[in-house]
Amino acid sequence: MQATNAIKIDWLSLSPRTMAKVMEVSTELGITPQDAFELMAEEAAASHASFATKQPA
Questions:
Q1: Which residues, at least 6 apart from 34, have a Cβ–Cβ distance to it below 8 Å?
Q2: Confidence class for position 21, pLDDT limits 50, 70, 90
Q3: Of 32, 52, 54, whose CA–CA distance to 44 is shortest?
Q4: Rounded CA gap, 10 and 39, in Å?
Q5: What gap in Å lies between CA 6 and CA 8, rounded to an integer?
Q6: 37-42: long-range contacts (C-beta < 8 A, 24 or more apart)?
Q7: Which residue from 9, 26, 45, 56 has the highest number of Cβ atoms inside 10 Å of its Cβ?
Q8: Coil, helix or strand for 54?
Q9: Per-residue pLDDT reduced to its tens digit, 24-50
């Protein structure tokens, strides 16, 4: 069995805008807010990684 690395979220430190987005994604996809936050974090990391690897023209 593999151990999972769960993100520990301090929900009270999130901005109202971020919390609203987490709840929106959670509702739309039918997943928990924790899963929605992790999905958003993964997408942001992937987006940043792809942006950082682009070469200037």
A1: 6, 7, 9
A2: very high
A3: 52
A4: 16
A5: 6
A6: 37/7, 37/9, 38/7, 41/7
A7: 26
A8: coil
A9: 999 999 999 999 999 998 998 888 766
